[in-house]
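Here is one chain, start to finish.
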Amino acid sequence: MKDQSRKGLLFQSEDIKIIMQEELCSEKSSKSSMIEEKSSFNLLFLLSPNIHLEAQDCNTSFLFKENQYILHYSAQENTSELWVDNHEILKYFQIQINYQYIFNLINPDSGLESKEILEGMLNNRYIFLHKETPAYMTAEMHIILKEIMSNSKRGVMQKLLIEAKIIKLLILVIEQFHEKNIQDTSPKTATLIKKFVDENFHKNIRIEEMGKLIGINQSTMRKEFKSQYNITITDYISELRMLKAKKMIINKEIMIKEISIECGYEYVQNFTRAFKKKFGLSPEKLRNT
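Its structure:
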């Protein structure tokens, strides 16, 4: 395998910093340093399997599974070391937000609920979902991260878009920890469905056919997926297709009909309708703006 390394600052303002790390660990001693600044909240999404993290502030080591995440508050500047086994890819996504921004956003003086949420964040209650197990990312979280990474806006529009996405992520985190009091691991059924959809969303698949292919009852599929990821299978497929369509639409050499087929739509009319519903413009109009 060739050496691969990609560590980039995707966005930075006076309140927010976003870093994407993707690196091939070719030696056992190869580690990545992650800095948490003083008085900052850090959303850390672990995107590759078996990531080791050694936190210097508490001298504790963790082992994260793929697609787990934590929301951690650091009162003082802290450096953590992350690594994976030899010849594996280390991939994680860090969103750092300063304390004052969160304080102004939540405003603990506005009510008891706001006060409790901020106290929970400061006391790091949004790390272990159950029995010292970090939470797993939902389908919506994956979609938001992809939207942040593929964002092409600049200036004020970029700042507004990033802040809106981060607020949505925080809402999803808080909801997941408040509502998830029974399951402590990602259900195998929902995980299997998500994997199948991620690999086949561009095809003209139907839920009935999907159930037959992976051997799961339709009703069970719908219930388990919605329970785990807080989005229906149909809506998740649509989100993935629209993300792909939006990336393809900027290439004027590709016909709209071709994009429609590539995104899993048998009829271009259905594609156009779904595209306009999602983005407020037809594919043709968005391409020419």
